[in-house]
Amino acid sequence: MSQLTLLLLQGGFLVLLWFFVFGVVYSLRADLFGVKVRKLPEPSASASPAAAAPTSSPDAVTTQVKRPAAPVPAPAGGLATTDAVSRIVITSGPKAGLELPLGTEPLTIGRSSESGLVIRDDYTSSHHARLVLWGEQWMLQDLDSTNGTSHDGVRVAAPVQVKVGAPIKVGATTFELRK
């Protein structure tokens, strides 16, 4: 084998080794510090939440969603509103049967101890999903989880309005909002 071939093989091996090291560091950083959380836009007081389609900004980190000052009429069609929902009931998974009362604050669901609803299973991300009160309606938002979040059998890509009694699946746990 020539000196040039040996030098090229050594250089290639070194580059491959550094890619591996950076991959491990990136993975550890994501596990330790989590991922960025997208912020829901504030609903305007003049438009109802049903008329304003929720969008997300990938660069913003959320702290709290403000609610409109004017009262918003309750939507029809079985959607979860503050009047219609008072608790979350876990129907299957490691914590089946657990009931949590809902307030007006956003509820983060995930494996992290900082989450409002902590689910410890291999299919749940540290910060997996979030329930947010938007105006008078509860919205479900996936927080870029690895395995995704589904509502009523459909994977959540953007924030969706939650229906009362519709199953919400996070990892191996299924729960629903009830009166």
From TrEMBL:
<feature type="compositionally biased region" description="Low complexity">
    <location>
        <begin position="45"/>
        <end position="60"/>
    </location>
</feature>
<protein>
    <submittedName>
        <fullName>FHA domain-containing protein</fullName>
    </submittedName>
</protein>
<dbReference type="InterPro" id="IPR032030">
    <property type="entry name" value="YscD_cytoplasmic_dom"/>
</dbReference>
<dbReference type="InterPro" id="IPR000253">
    <property type="entry name" value="FHA_dom"/>
</dbReference>
<dbReference type="InterPro" id="IPR008984">
    <property type="entry name" value="SMAD_FHA_dom_sf"/>
</dbReference>
<feature type="domain" description="FHA">
    <location>
        <begin position="107"/>
        <end position="156"/>
    </location>
</feature>
<feature type="region of interest" description="Disordered">
    <location>
        <begin position="45"/>
        <end position="64"/>
    </location>
</feature>
<keyword id="KW-0597">Phosphoprotein</keyword>
<dbReference type="Pfam" id="PF16697">
    <property type="entry name" value="Yop-YscD_cpl"/>
</dbReference>
